[in-house]
Amino acid sequence: MNPDLDLTMARVIRAPRASVWSAWTDPSRFEKWWVPSPALCRVDRLDVRPGGAFVTRLSEDGVEFVPHLDACFLVVDDLERIVFTNVIDSAWRPANPAPVPMTAEITMRDHPDGTDYRIIVRHGDPAARDLHEKIGFADGWGSVTEQLAGVAESQGAP
């Protein structure tokens, strides 16, 4: 963790790690939490393996879905860690994503109350980190993490 380049978030999700993992890897569960409500998410591709595609769409009105994320998974350690980046798209081509190029690492560990869920979002330079913070990293990632917790906690173990 480099505070000049990285943003972080952590929370305990009151659900078994397997349920949190399933909410990340099952497209029908993933769509329920990935974008801040009331926007809707559609998963085009969710191939959760190293090199797998991670493509989503977003709708503000529930009718028109526009591109949201075109990324690639870098590391997938079952039930423990997911790393993805938007600087390589789902076709493994270099990308210039807007608004912020980033690599996100999600870790999950057992906790006495459920799952210790941690996020580190890495940026290439301080300007990108500061922009991400300014445009709402805490609100955006915080709200979807809350939604993830709701999905995992309401559905329990898969």
From TrEMBL:
Residues 14-152 form the Activator of Hsp90 ATPase homologue 1/2-like C-terminal domain. InterPro entries: ASHA1/2-like_C, START-like_dom_sf. Pfam families: AHSA1 (PF08327). It comes from the Bacteria. Belongs to the AHA1 family. This is Uncharacterized protein YndB with AHSA1/START domain.
